[in-house]
Amino acid sequence: MLTFLIRRFLQIIPVMIGVTLAVFLLMHLIPGDPAQIMAGEKADEAQVEQMRENLGLNDPLHEQYLRYVGNAIQGDLGTSIRTNRPVVNEIFDSRIWITMELAFWGTVLAVVFGLIAGIISATRKYSFADVSLMVVALFGMSMPNFWLGIMLIYFFSVNLGWFPIVGWDSWKHMVLPVITIGSGGAAIIARMTRSSMLEVLDNDYIRTAHAKGVSERLVIYKHALRNALIPVVTVVGLQFGTLLGGAVITETVFAVNGIGRLVIDAIKARDFPMVQGAILVCAVAFVFVNFLVDIAYRLINKRIDLN
Amino acid sequence: MSKQPLLEVKNLKQYFPIKGGILGRTVNHVKAVDDISFEVYEGETVSIVGESGCGKSTTGRAILRLDEPTSGEVNFDGGNLLSLSKSKMREKRKDLQIIFQDPYASLNPRQTVSQIIDEVLKIQKIGTSSKERRERIISLLETVGIGSHQVDRYPHEFSGGQRQRIGIARALSVNPKLIICDEAVSALDVSIQAQVLNLLKELQRKFQLTYLFISHDLGVVRHISDRIIVMYLGKIVEISDTQSLFENPQHPYTRALLSAIPSMNFEEEKRERIILKGDVPSPIDPPKGCRFHSRCPYKMERCATEEPVLNSVSNGQKVACHLTEKGAVDYTKILVNN
C-alpha cells in the first residue's frame, strides 16, 4: 500500500507540470498585451514598458515559467487587477470554501440518490419502478444546469416560496443549488450503478451465494453491490470535475459567491492573474480528489495495481 | 442403490417470460424446460447431456430454485423443494450444492478463499467456533489439493483448475447429499479436466455423494456416469444406463449426438456419421408433435402431429420416439426417409 501511495503520488508531478504550464501560457495566449491590460487603457508607452519590466515579461519564457511555479509553490499567485488584493486571499478567504461546500453536498446528493435509484432499478429490472427511475435519470442527464436552476427557482422560490432565491447563508439557501449541481451526477451514477449491478447479478458467484443459502438482502448488498461499486467509484471521481465546472453556472444562477462566479467576474474584468489562480486551484482540487478516489478504488478492489 | 430415489423430478417446467412493448407486458415464453421427469438414486451419477440451449443447465438451476421453476415437483429426500418457504429452502440448501462451469465467474472476487467457505459454514451452522471452522476449511481445501498456506488468498491468485477445486471444496463444506455439477469441467484444459473428474469420483466414494452431472461433453459423461439423460429442446428424449446408451442408442437424436464424437481409432472411421440438417428450432415456438421431427432423418407423418412419450424399450432404457414404441429398434434395418 505504501509503495502504491508513493508511486501514485509521483504520478501527480507530471500532471501538475502540465497544469501549471497550461495556466502559465494562458497569459501569453490571450489576445492583447498583458502589460497594456494591467497598466490600463489610458497608460502611455513608457508606463506600459515599466509594467512589462515589473511583470518580468521581458525575460525568456522558461525563466518566467520557473518564477511563476516558484511563486505558486510559495503561495503567491499574483495580485488581482480588479481588487488589487493577492489572488490567494481572494480565493481562499471564502470563495473556494463555498464552492467546496456546494460541490461536496452535490456529490453527496448524487451518490446517495444515484446509488439508491440504481439498486432499485437493477433489482427490479423492467418493472414500473425501474422504467420510471431511468426516465427520470434521462431527464436529469439531459437538462442543462442553468435551465434546471431557473426552473427550480421559479417553482420552489417564486411560486411556492419555500426557499430563498439567491445567496448562501443557511441550509435553505443551499437546497436548490445543491439539487441543480447534483442532479446530473445522480442520473449518471444511477445509470452506471444499474448497469454495473445487472452485470454483476448475472455472475455465477451470485448464484453461488444463493446456493449457499445467503439471504436475498445480503446477496445484494454484500456480494453484488460491493463488486458493482468499482466502476461507480471512478465515475464519482470524474463527476467531481464536472461539478466544479457546473459550479460556474450554478453559482451564477443562484448568485452564490463561490469560485465559479469569481472566475466569471474575473474574465469579464480581464483580471487574468485571478483567472489563472482560480483555474490552478480548481485543477489542483480535481487532481487531489482523483488521488483520493484512486486510493478508495485500490481499497475496494485488491486486484488493482499500478502496473 | 436403494429403491427410493434421492431426487425425483416430476413434470418440471421452466418458462421464461419474454417482455415486449413499452409497457413491458409478457408477449411470449421461452420454454427452456418443458415437462420433464426423472429420478436420481442415492450414490449414483446421472448426467444430463444435450446441445447448448437444450435446457440442461436450466434444469439444474430449477432443481435448486436458483431460478423459480414455472411448475412441477422436485422431491428431494422425501419432501417437495418447490413447496418450501424461502427460509426453509435456505436450510435445505445444506443438502444440495452446485458447482458451476466457469471457475473465474463462480467465486466472488472480493472474498478470500477462507471467507468464501466460512460464509456457507456460518449460514448452515456448521462448526461452533471460528477456530473450529478454520480447521474445517483447511482440511477441506487439503482434500481438494489446495495447501493451507493459500487459504487467505483471493480467487484471482489461483489458476482455473485450482479455482474449480475451491468451488468443489465450497460445495463439499456443508456435507451435501447431492451435488449438481453444471458443466463443472468444461472450462478447464483437458489435462486438468481429468484431474478434477478423478477428484470428483474419489470424493464420491469418500463421502457417498450423489451427482447430477450436466455436460455437453460425451467423453466426460461416459467416463463418470452411471446413467445418462439426453435432452433436446427442453424435453427428455432418452434416459439410459451408460453402457446401453453408448452401445445401442435408441433415439435418432442420441444416435446423431454419439456419431459426432471424434474418434482416435482409424478403423472406426468407416462408421456412419449422422449429420443433422439445420439449427435447433427456437424454444419460444418449438415444433409441434415430436420436437425433433424437423431435423430427424427417420421422420414419419405422425411425428409432426403426435408427441411421443417416454416408454421403456429395455431394462433401464427409456426413449421418447414413435419408432421405438414397440421396443428397441435395429437401426441397420431402417431406411432413412429423406
TrEMBL record, chain A:
It comes from the Bacteria. Pfam families: BPD_transp_1, BPD_transp_1_N. The chain crosses the membrane at residues 12-30, 102-121, 133-156, 171-190, 228-254, 274-293. It is a multi-pass membrane protein. Residues 96-297 form the ABC transmembrane type-1 domain. One of its GO terms (molecular function) is nickel cation transmembrane transporter activity. Keywords: Cell membrane, Ion transport, Membrane, Nickel, Nickel transport, Transmembrane, Transmembrane helix, Transport. One of its GO terms (cellular component) is plasma membrane. It is found in: Cell membrane. InterPro entries: BPD_transp_1_N, MetI-like, MetI-like_sf, Opp2B. Its main location: membrane. The complex is composed of two ATP-binding proteins (NikD and NikE), two transmembrane proteins (NikB and NikC) and a solute-binding protein (NikA). Belongs to the binding-protein-dependent transport system permease family. OppBC subfamily. This is Nickel import system permease protein NikB. It comes from Ureibacillus manganicus DSM 26584.
UniProtKB/TrEMBL annotation, chain B:
GO terms for biological process: peptide transport; transmembrane transport. This is Peptide ABC transporter ATP-binding protein. The keyword ATP-binding applies. Residues 7-258 form the ABC transporter domain. Transmembrane segments: none annotated. One of its GO terms (molecular function) is ATP binding. SUPFAM superfamilies: P-loop containing nucleoside triphosphate hydrolases (SSF52540).
